[in-house]
User: Fold this.
Amino acid sequence: MLDAAAERFRRAMGADVRIVRVLLTAADATAAERLNGREIGGELEHDLANSARKARLLDERAPGDTVRVVTDGRSVVDIASEVPATSGWLNSR
Assistant:
């Protein structure tokens, strides 16, 4: 979430809300492989370009405290277990 969106959460949930930003990342080759595996129509080239553009924007605009989780070569279960661990959610109970 970008800083502008964080302010909306603070207004809705209170100034003391703890916001943890997690950005899932993948190399361009990994993203291309994933898109190729699920693209059915003729939009693959558009989707590849759009994915690369959005990845760059997220990388450039993500606040400095954003935790990046690399997803290349990892299972969904492995990634899903890292996200709450990285955020500290498991330690806060």
Notes: The longest strand covers residues 22-25. The mean pLDDT is 87. Helices lie at 3-13, 28-38, 44-61, 76-87. Strands lie at 22-25, 67-70.
